[in-house]
């Protein structure tokens, strides 16, 4: 089932991440072991609308719409910036330092996200 939204082009990356997580039980277990948190994303599109998704790497190992149950860390950024981040064209640290990425919650857990995005890039050819 797709979690992407037509109004948010970057949300296709969440389907790619889900595809990697669902590709094998080992893949899912490794991601949960690496992540150990619930990552929420609030994305703002060009029309000024916002929507949220969550990546549960604490229990279920899947992406779903909404903020999820008590996210460990929430990342707030634009649709374009998330697209670039998911494709490896942007660096989360640089986005954060320039104010384009806002992080609420456990900032150290946010650093666990990069290897998972890299795996999605490689497998899904984002």
TrEMBL record:
Signal peptide: none
Transmembrane segments: none
InterPro entries from the UniProt entry: SCP2_sterol-bd_dom, SCP2_sterol-bd_dom_sf
Entry GO CC: cytosol
UniProt-listed Pfam families: SCP2 (PF02036)
Domain SCP2: residue ranges: 17-118
Name of the protein: Putative SCP-2 sterol transfer family protein
Species this protein is from: [Torrubiella] hemipterigena
């Amino acid at each position: 089932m797709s979690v992407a939204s037509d109004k948010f082009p970057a949300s296709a990356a969440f389907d790619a991440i889900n595809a990697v997580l669902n590709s094998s039980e080992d893949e899912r277990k490794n991601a949960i072991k690496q992540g150990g948190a619930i990552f929420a994303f609030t994305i703002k599109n060009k029309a000024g609308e916002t929507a949220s998704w969550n990546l549960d790497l604490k229990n279920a190992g899947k992406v779903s719409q909404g903020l999820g149950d008590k996210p460990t860390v929430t990342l707030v950024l634009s649709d374009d910036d998330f697209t670039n981040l998911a494709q490896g064209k942007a660096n989360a640290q640089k986005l954060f330092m320039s104010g384009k990425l806002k992080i609420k919650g456990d900032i150290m857990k946010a650093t666990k996200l990069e290897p998972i995005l890299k795996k999605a890039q490689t497998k899904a050819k984002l």
